[in-house]
Amino acid sequence: MDELIRQKSLAEHIVEDLEKKIIDGTLQPGQRIIEEALCKTLGVSRSPVREAFQILESRGFVVREPRKGISVARNTQREAEDIYRIRASLDGLATSLALEKQTPELLKQLKKMHEQMIRAAEKENGAAYQQLNEKFHELLINACDNQRLIQLIRNFDKQTIRYRMTVANSPGWMANSTRIHSAIIASFEAGDAEAAGRIRKNSILGQIERFPEIFKNGEEK
Q1: What does the pLDDT look like over 87-99, one tens digit per residue?
Q2: Single pTM value for the model
Q3: Domain boundaries, the chain
Q4: Which CATH code fits 77-220?
Q5: Are strands 62-65 and 215-216 parallel, antiparallel or unpaired?
Q6: Stretch (H or E) spanning 5
Q7: Is 63 helix (H, G, I), strand (E, B) or coil?
Q8: Which site from 48, 206, 210, 212 is most exposed, i.e. has the minimal number of CB atoms within 10 Å?
């Protein structure tokens, strides 16, 4: 049993490490991940590495090809759009649930964070704004109080992060984002869960319009 726990822990560590490298671009789309080389680098046996590959494949981070082995997934524009549509629905649902379960403290926190984001936008501090934006939506997601939904959103969130960075760097993004957050807060004040979910869902779907900047001939650049 101890060996099984240790192996699982190793596999989870490898998953976290490879996910991070895929998300930050250290491992590029289409790049092969050599099992033997990875085992040697990490000083582990093949078993936890293969388990990590299975987990990453199930999450859409890597693909397994006959005679080629494991490589970083290279999404097509269509695949990315599908992922975004799923994420939009999940986030919209979480936002609606968060409103239904909201407390005065939650609304107070959202308003405070929104004010900080407005100040960051006025100073054109994109990095600070992005950090606050992530915290704003993390707060909403956690407030939905549905652990299965939260886990699903986090998995899809990891798959879309590299696309979100391109969207966040586009002209007018902070101003538009500020308007969306104002509308979400207004829906919370009005107690309109349907509106809150719709606003969040549509804000994510709207980001698909930027995909031509990310994909060339339908494939990830």
Answers
A1: 999 999 999 999 9
A2: 0.77
A3: 2-72, 77-220
A4: 1.20.120.530
A5: unpaired
A6: helix 2-23
A7: strand
A8: 212
